[in-house]
Amino acid sequence: MGLNKVVANADEAVQGIEDNMMLMLGGFGLCGIPENCIAALVKKGVTGLTCISNNAGVDDFGIGLMLHGKQVKKMISSYVGENDEFERQMLSGELEVELVPQGTLATRCMATGYGMPVVYTPAGVGTEVAEGKETRTFTMYGEEKEYLMERAFESDYAIVKAWKGDEHGNLIFKDTARNFNPLMAMAGKITIVEVEHLVKPGELHPNEIHVPGIYVKHIFQGTDYEKRIEQRTVQS
Fold it and tell me: φ and ψ at 235, to 5 degrees?
């Protein structure tokens, strides 16, 4: 394959994803969601998945589609308040949930991409988040403080969406869709990227690239993006 990372479509990109794998999925709210890959996973019917994502979409969009199909065994997220089916499965015990402070979630993704096995953070110390985890005391700026040890992730795949990418996998994210996508693109053992615009090598200016192609295994141009607004507020 060489430097060319292009695959035909989402179905081909997710071909290697099997039951009981751990996936990272980029996006924030409904912005920057890898819609085509999620649709392909719904079609493929894989089950027992552990999904790492800032949130779980809504009932009929994003990861919510996989929840409706009972494909997700566990969610690792920071916010899940917009999904009724998620709430139902969690309260009934059908879905295992690990809630993580948003900054900690981002930092654990970053640590994975950097090859760091753990990070230490003061977030969550003395709360339910800290149960069963190691803490250590460090001194910073002359102040002694307790820190919680959080582990990096070991995901099988990262699935992200970018605005523009080239055939070598170099990526540019646009506006708010930059969110968790770059961190997760760097963190996946195998990273799949869907883009709105796929271009030839050399068409992206090096200074504008957010994630270099070295992190990307498969890339394809997606179609039919909805660009939803999660909560629309208008004047009366």
Answer: -75, 150
